[in-house]
Design a protein that fits this description.
With about 325 residues, the chain is α+β, with helices and mostly antiparallel strands. It is built from eleven helices and 16 strands. The strands form two sheets. Strands 6, 7, 8, 9, 10, 11, 12, 13, 14, 15 and 16 form an eleven-stranded antiparallel sheet that branches. It has a five-stranded parallel sheet with strand order 1-2-3-4-5, sandwiched between helices.
Length: about 325
């Protein structure tokens, strides 16, 4: 609560302005999420003309109190109270309300799919709209379904605005409002049901197998955890079956996009709470790992494969895999 870091950053920016012979009207501050909060704060405080931010948090005190406990302790002290939270909450709104230098170019890229939109941005839009060139740019793409997808989906837009500002070509968008709609398919073709398997992590500690990777049945939407189930099959002289868990990886939808948008958000297999699978019951011998995927009425069993060569070995186990298959060996002593 002593604001020494904030004062130092303000002084650093002023020193750089002087060192580079800059003026505030040809400077741009930019930041994304928490960095967007910082860019908006210093842009308003120092009266910098160009501000480009994505999905910032406005009520910083409540945000860190709820989501970043160690950061909250660092910023507000070990015995911080609701008074401190409210004080930090008011920093950005107070700057917005008191600012009378309205000849700013502000670009705010966001989405209503961001769960922070209604809490942090919607209550402050009226104060932002007073600026002569405020641009609210909202995304409605199926590739943008949560907070951390907004910035990456609009990287080219962010760069184009920065390039334009650097060339003194000030963009102005549609009376300050732009709604970007992603390509929404009208009707999907029949799912191919081809399995896409890519093992990413394997490790064994104290008879616990830690394994993670991509497990997709191509063409089938998997938006909720109940849509998909995984089993790991050890095929050898005796077969063993272990239940796997799944994890949320929304980047898979973008990464495995082809001609149609299929939601693969939950198509990541792992162990329950990442605690590993007990493999102490596996008998000595050689096995081949398979994965069974049950998804919305379809069932696929296929070899565990990896896009890059993976090798593991210790006194009791060894494993190797590539894009063709795998070998898992148990060596009991």
């Amino acid at each position: 609560m002593d604001f020494k870091i904030e004062d130092s950053i303000s002084e650093f920016i002023k020193l750089k302005v002087k060192e580079k012979n800059l003026i505030l009207s040809n400077m741009t501050v930019t930041g994304f999420s928490k960095g967007g909060s910082a860019a908006l704060y210093y842009g308003l405080k120092l009266n910098i003309s160009n501000i480009l931010v994505t999905v910032p948090q406005i009520y910083i005190g409540s945000y860190i109190n709820k989501n970043w406990h160690r950061t909250a302790l660092h910023m507000m002290g070990a015995d911080y109270s609701s008074v401190d939270i409210q004080f930090i909450n008011n920093l950005l709104p107070r700057l917005l309300k008191s600012d009378t230098e309205l000849e700013k170019n502000i670009y705010l890229i966001t989405s209503e799919a961001d769960n922070q939109y209604k809490e942090h941005l919607e209550p402050n839009l009226n104060d932002l709209m007073k600026y002569k060139n405020f641009n609210l740019i909202k995304s409605y793409s199926l590739f943008v379904r949560e907070h951390n997808q907004v910035t990456s989906h609009h990287t080219s837009l962010v760069l184009s605005i920065l390039y334009a500002l650097a060339s003194d070509a000030i963009p102005r968008f549609n009376d300050g409002n732009v709604n970007f709609f992603g390509s929404q398919p009208i009707k999907k073709s029949k799912a191919s049901l081809n399995p896409i398997i890519d093992l990413k992590i394997i490790n064994i500690q104290n008879d616990k197998l830690f394994i993670e990777g991509v497990g997709i049945v191509e063409g089938v939407d998997v938006e909720d955890y109940q849509d998909i189930n995984y089993e790991l099959i050890f095929k050898g002289k005796s077969n063993f079956i272990k239940k796997l868990a799944k994890a949320h990886r929304p980047n898979l939808t973008r990464g495995y996009f082809k001609k149609e948008i299929v939601i693969y958000d939950k198509c990541w297999f792992s162990t329950y709470q990442h605690l590993g699978l007990d493999v102490s019951d596996l008998t000595e011998g050689s096995y081949e790992l398979y994965i069974k995927i049950k998804v919305k009425g379809s069932e696929v069993i296929t070899k565990m494969t990896s896009s890059v060569k993976i090798e593991y070995s210790d006194n009791n186990f060894s494993f190797n895999s590539d894009f063709k298959g795998n070998v898992f060996i148990v060596k009991r002593k």
